[in-house]
Design goal:
mainly alpha, 9 helices, rod-shaped, RNA polymerase sigma factor (Sigma-70 family)
C-alpha cells in the first residue's frame, strides 16, 4: 500500500523533495475534482496551481504525526485554493458579462436609437430567424432584460448556454450595426 502520509511529509520536511511526488499521487483524485469544477480554460495551469498549494501547505504544516490530520490539512488547503480560484474565475466572468451588457444598453428600448422603425424591424427579423429555445431566450434577453441565471432556470438550460446565446446575438448586432 505504500508509506503513510505523515511519514512522507516528515521526510519532505527533512529535505527529501522527491517524496513530494508521492503526496501529489495520493492527492491527484481531489486535485482532478477541483480542476474539473472550475470553469477556467487552462486546466493544466489550474492543476499546477493546486500542486503548488499542496507544496505550500506541506511547508506550513507544524503537526504531522497522524495520517488523518495530515490528509485533512492537505484537503482543506486544496479546497481553499479551489474557492480562491473559483472567486477569481467568477469575477473575471462577471466582468466579461458586464462589458457585453454595456454594449447592449447602448441599444436599449429607452434610447432614441430603438425608436428607429428600421432598427426595430431588423431586430424582429433577427429574432424570428432563431428557433426553439434560442428564440424564447433571446426574447427574454431583449425585451424582458432578465439575468442569465433567471432565464436559464426558467427554461431548464445552463447559464453558460444563455450567455452563449446572448454573446452570439451581440456579435450579430455588432456585425450589422457597428462595422
Amino acid at each position: 500500500m505504500g508509506e503513510s502520509v505523515h511519514v512522507i511529509i516528515e521526510e519532505i520536511k527533512k529535505g527529501n523533495k522527491e517524496k513530494f511526488l508521492l503526496i501529489i499521487d495520493k492527492m491527484t483524485p481531489l486535485i482532478n475534482k477541483y480542476v474539473r469544477l472550475l470553469y477556467k480554460d487552462e486546466k493544466e495551469d489550474m492543476h499546477s496551481e493546486f500542486v503548488l498549494s499542496l507544496l505550500e501547505a506541506i511547508n506550513s504544516m507544524q503537526y504531522y504525526k497522524e495520517d488523518g490530520q495530515c490528509v485533512y490539512f492537505l484537503s482543506r488547503a486544496l479546497k481553499n485554493k479551489f474557492l480562491e480560484q473559483y472567486k477569481k474565475s467568477k469575477q473575471h466572468f462577471d466582468a466579461e458579462a458586464s462589458v457585453e451588457d454595456e454594449f447592449f444598453t447602448e441599444i436599449s428600448m429607452d434610447q432614441p436609437v430603438y425608436d428607429d422603425w428600421l432598427f426595430h424591424e431588423d431586430l424582429k427579423t433577427m429574432l424570428l430567424k432563431t428557433e426553439g429555445k434560442q428564440a424564447v431566450i433571446l426574447w427574454d434577453i431583449v425585451f424582458h432584460e432578465e439575468s442569465d441565471a433567471v432565464i436559464a432556470e426558467r427554461h431548464s438550460v445552463s447559464r453558460q448556454y444563455v450567455n452563449r446565446v446572448r454573446r452570439n446575438f451581440y456579435n450579430l448586432l455588432k456585425e450589422n450595426y457597428y462595422k
